[in-house]
Design goal:
Strand content of chain B: under 5%
Largest sheet of chain A: 2 strands, antiparallel
Helix content of chain A: 55-70%
Number of domains of chain B: 1
Order of helices and strands of chain B: HHHHH
Oligomer: heterodimer
Shape of chain A: globular
Helix content of chain B: over 70%
Distance between the termini of chain A: 12 Å
Number of strands of chain A: 2
Radius of gyration of chain B: 17 Å
Distance between the termini of chain B: 22 Å
Number of strands of chain B: 0
Number of domains of chain A: 2
Number of helices of chain A: 7
Chain lengths: 170, 126
């Protein structure tokens, strides 16, 4: 993992949390929208909070897709779940809302989960993959590199679990 | 009876978002490392290649379906159950789906991470 990749993961986390809270703040100002007056949803975009929220969520989507292009789904999802923690901390220290003991426990569990997944490799390297070997997976054994045929189909054709080589060992 | 409907709605949301996440992850693996691709074909090339990927479009459709079913469920269901249950079960569902459909190596470390995060999200959102 390079510094740039950590930055992308941080982007996923922060953009999602900030986008969601701005959208939520803006929609509370706009007021409730009934199903019978759906066109008023379009007017909601005129609210600056909603507009900024949408831009941030687009940024979230772009960084999320970038992260998925070089990391496993089961790595990206837990690693970026700190957004929930950020929201709770903002609620406590910026908005001065009460955070219950159960919620603090939730914060501890999520942080622990992030720590667990971040200590492991970010991508499963299949022997039958046609993607380029990036600098992070240099330390796979030469045998596994040789077993990777160039220009083959992507490794979705059921490469057995046993055969997968871990790029980085913690 | 109402709780059965609520749980059905939760299952629909979880199913749709897991399908969406798996399809998007698969699509981005097909597109390739965005950082390297951008150096070769530029940012517009990356966007074009991503939007032209049919798996990506299917994934976005599934995500949109999940989003609207969540909105729908929140409009009549119990918010304090629907929101945390859907968010939390999606983490578990994604770990299972990623193992079987994306052939990711979901080792003990990742199972523990997914379970801890799912439990934490359930507590935080509840």
């Amino acid at each position: 993992m390079t510094f740039r990749k950590y930055l992308v993961l941080a982007g996923v986390t922060v953009f999602a949390a900030a986008g969601d809270s701005m959208l939520s703040h803006g929609m509370k100002q706009v007021g409730s929208i009934s199903l019978h007056h759906l066109p008023s949803v379009i007017l909601a975009v005129l609210n600056p909070w909603v507009a900024v929220g949408i831009v941030l969520l687009l940024a979230f989507f772009a960084t999320y897709m970038t992260a998925l292009s070089w990391a496993d789904l089961t790595y990206v999802l837990p690693a970026t779940s700190l957004g929930y923690v950020i929201l709770a901390l903002v609620a406590r220290f910026v908005l001065h809302e009460h955070v219950s003991a159960l919620r603090w426990l939730g914060i501890v569990l999520i942080t622990g989960g992030v720590g667990f997944v971040a200590g492991g490799p970010e991508i499963t390297v299949h022997p039958r993959e046609d993607r380029e070997v990036t600098s992070e997976v240099e330390d796979i054994p030469p045998l596994a590199k040789a077993a990777r045929p160039l220009g083959s189909a992507q490794g979705k054709s059921g490469a057995p679990e046993k055969a997968s080589v871990r790029g980085m060992e913690s | 009876m109402r709780s059965i409907y609520t749980w059905c709605a939760i299952l629909v949301i979880v199913f749709a978002s897991v399908v969406g996440d798996v399809l998007l992850a698969q699509a981005m693996k097909q597109v390739g490392d965005v950082g390297e691709l951008r150096r070769r074909v530029g940012i517009l090339g990356v966007i074009g290649r991503t939007l032209g990927d049919s798996t990506f479009l299917l994934g976005v459709t599934a995500m949109a379906f999940a989003f609207f079913s969540l909105l729908f469920a929140l409009s009549w269901g119990d918010v304090s159950l629907v929101a945390p249950a859907a968010a939390s079960l999606t983490f578990i569902g994604n770990a299972i789906a990623a193992k079987f459909f994306l052939h990711e190596r979901v080792d003990r470390r990742r199972w523990i991470a997914a379970t801890l995060v799912a439990a934490g999200v359930a507590l935080l959102a509840g």
